[in-house]
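Bench notes, afternoon.
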Amino acid sequence: MASVITTANTSYATPKTWAASEALTATLFNTYIRDQVLALKSPAHFRCYVDEAADFTTTSTTFVDTSATALSATVTTGGGKFLIGFSGAVYQSATTARIYLDVSIDGTRIGLDDGLMVIRTSTLTSHGGVSFSVITGTLSAASHTFKLQWKVDGGTGGMY
C-alpha cells in the first residue's frame, strides 16, 4: 500500500462580542455558532500511514527529511498548539551508532541539537519500535508544513 495522507482543515474565528439587543442573523449564527462548534469538533489534523515497498534509509549525519513526500503534510490551522505523534520501527547497521528523530515545521526543527528522540538498537540491524509525541509552541493561523526528519552518527539507519 502506498502512503495515505488524510488532512482536515478547519478554522476557528475569534469569538464575537455581542451588543445588547443585537439581532442574530443567519450569517452571524453560522459564523459564530455553527462554524465554531464544527471547528472544535473536528480540529485541523493530518495522518500519514506509510507501507512502502522498500525501507527508508540514511547515512546523513545532519538532519534530512525521511522522505520527500511520504512523511510530510501541509495543514491549514486556525492557530494554536499542535499535537504531533510518530510510531514506527528503525534499525541501525552499526551497534555503536544512533538514529536521531525530529520534526520540522515550515523548515525549522523543533528539537534541540539531537532532535526529539535518540535511538540505539541493541544488535546489528535489529529492529526497534519507537514512538514519540510532542506539543508544538503556538502556531499562527496559516498553512504549515510538517516533516519527519532524521540523522545518524555513523553507519546506515533504516526505517520501515
